[in-house]
Design brief:
alpha+beta, 15% strand
Length: 441
């Protein structure tokens, strides 16, 4: 495999003994002792030819992913969401999203004044329902001027919807399909998996989540030629003007490495699926999903105790959502990791019969999203917010989607999760922004 960005950086490092340009650390000896790869941290220089190397790498990546055009990103998938919405903002003032869309989706819609048509309710177990073709068709019938849909595929828990059916429906209705594929970049390399890029007009892969890529590495891809200019213009507006070429090089490496290891992906997936079945036989409640690299185990009210147990044994879960722990694998894990995790589950020894599942309830929608964000507001202590109408999105981080959306009433279950969880957004210094009572509809 040829890694064009790495080669460009390597050639630059060999011929540059003295750096009189950015970045300010100059890759000096003291700095490199702390950050060993600092020599690869270069800036935009003609002599490095790194920009041409990135363009060449992007062509390679687009070919591998089956895209008309791809852009490598060093500032994450959130920026790409803004670029996607920017590219379609002229097509209408509404767009269909899932309730559990990433907060960057909600933020982009605020920025461009686009009203979300929110689908996918949350059930009593605190999980949202995946969207259906019929739901989206109904939403279009009720909002014929809608741009299309910006959907998450797969979701944070590794669940998917009928993306083929949704794509055909939107194409038939002359609407756009944008996909936040932040957690599905590896689907492109696993036989039998349905990769979002086969169906989306525009999509983003947050490849650092599963591929061998540095944090913040992502890829923005386009298949609808009519949107290419808008997408890349948006990326130019919202992306950093000083990208990390080290991160970009790792994106190229991660994609090409995954492309060369398709057989290994398939074999490791089989081992993880076997491991999931073994956990079920031990009495654990393993959530069914379509992503072998995501293991979701329900612990109910014992979830915090279980998380502490795993951490004491050197095992750190990706997420604690107040009921479940989510563990994320990649090819960088191995069979030793699976064995260690299995032994920990055996010692934990919690079965389905030993926990009580806490019920989750979502508050009623009182006001439209954009309207709620513009209403007069006040800040109240989170404990005193039950029953009030939120003027902000608030949720857990991760997974970074809202438990309460602006315009909805705040429930006691939401308050409990927001006060007990280590990482939250939308709550500052123990307070949350709510609509003033006299301005509630």
């Amino acid at each position: 495999m040829e890694f064009k960005i790495l080669k460009s950086i390597g050639d630059y490092v060999k011929k540059t003994p003295v750096r009189l340009h950015m970045p300010g650390h100059k890759a000096n000896e003291e700095f490199c002792k702390l950050f060993s790869d600092a020599r690869l941290d270069i800036t935009e220089l003609k002599s490095a030819n790194n920009e041409q190397a990135v363009l060449d790498a992007e062509k390679d990546v687009a070919l591998i992913l089956g895209a008309k055009k791809s852009k490598l990103l060093s500032d994450g998938a959130s920026m790409a969401i803004f670029a996607m919405v920017y590219a379609v903002k002229h097509l209408g003032s509404k767009i269909i999203i899932e309730r559990t869309a990433h907060k960057s989706v909600y933020n982009a819609l605020i920025n461009f004044g686009i009203e979300p048509i929110i689908l996918g309710d949350i059930n009593e177990n605190g999980l949202h329902e995946t969207v259906s073709v019929n739901e989206i068709e109904k939403a279009i019938d009720e909002n014929p001027d809608v741009i299309g849909a910006l959907l998450t595929y797969p979701d944070y828990y590794g669940r998917t919807f009928d993306i083929d059916g949704v794509s055909k429906l939107l194409n038939k209705r002359n609407k756009k399909l944008l996909i936040d594929n932040a957690h599905g970049g590896h689907y492109a390399f696993i036989d039998g998996y349905t990769y979002a890029g086969r169906f989306a007009d525009v999509w983003v892969d947050s490849v650092h989540k599963v591929l061998s890529t540095l944090n913040q590495g992502a890829i923005l891809s386009v298949n609808d030629r009519s949107l290419i200019d808008g997408v890349f213009e948006g990326a130019s507006i919202f992306s950093t003007s000083s990208p990390s070429y080290g991160i970009l090089a790792s994106v190229e490496y991660g994609v090409k490495k995954a492309d060369s290891e398709r057989k290994e992906y398939a074999e490791f997936c089989k081992k993880i699926e076997l491991f999931k079945r073994e956990l079920t036989s031990l009495g654990y409640s393993v959530m069914p999903n379509t992503d072998c690299f995501k293991l979701v185990v329900e612990f109910g009210k014992n979830v915090n105790m279980a998380e502490r147990f795993f951490e004491e044994n050197g095992i750190f879960a990706e997420m604690n959502d107040g009921k479940r722990l989510l563990f994320m694998f990649s090819l960088s894990n191995g069979e030793n990791d699976l064995r260690k995790l299995k032994r920990a589950f055996e010692r934990l020894n919690l079965s389905n019969e030993e926990y009580e599942t806490a019920v989750y309830r979502r508050g009623e929608k009182v006001e439209n999203y954009l309207k709620a964000l513009s209403c007069p507001f006040e800040y109240v202590e989170i404990d005193n917010a039950i029953g009030r109408v939120s003027a902000v999105n608030a949720g857990l981080f991760p997974p970074c989607y809202p438990l309460v959306v602006a315009g909805e009433r705040i429930t006691k279950e939401t308050v409990k999760l927001l006060t007990e969880s280590a990482g939250v957004f939308g709550v500052n210094d123990g307070k949350i922004k709510v609509i003033k009572e006299e301005n509630e509809r």
